[in-house]
Amino acid sequence: MFGAFNIGAMHGFILTAWSLGGVAGGLTFNAKYNDAIKNGSTPVDAYVDSIYKILIVVCVTGIFIFMVRTNPRDRFDKGYHYSLFGKRVISIKPKDTTANKEGLLQSEV
C-alpha cells in the first residue's frame, strides 16, 4: 500500500481524489447556497449553513482516516488487526479453514 514501489499509484489516487473533491464540493456548495437564497435565507445564513454541512462531511471523513491500517503487522498478519498509537486495539482471529480443506481432499466413494 505504502512505500517506494507504490508511490506512483498513491500519487495518482491522491491527485484524482483532490480534483474530484474540488469539483464536486464546489458544485454542491454552490447548489445548496443558491437553493437557500431562493428559499428566502439571507446570504450570511445560507453561507454559514453550507459551512456547517461541510464540517459534518469533514468530521465523518476524519473518522474514516483512523480506520486505515498503516502498521505492517496489522495489515499482513492473518485475520483483522488494528493498532492505535502503537497498541493493538482490535484483533479478530481468522476462521479455521483446515477442516474444510481436508474435507475437499477426501474423495467421495
TrEMBL record:
<feature type="transmembrane region" description="Helical">
    <location>
        <begin position="12"/>
        <end position="31"/>
    </location>
</feature>
<feature type="transmembrane region" description="Helical">
    <location>
        <begin position="51"/>
        <end position="68"/>
    </location>
</feature>
<keyword id="KW-0472">Membrane</keyword>
<keyword id="KW-0812">Transmembrane</keyword>
<protein>
    <submittedName>
        <fullName>Major Facilitator Superfamily (MFS)</fullName>
    </submittedName>
</protein>
<keyword id="KW-1133">Transmembrane helix</keyword>
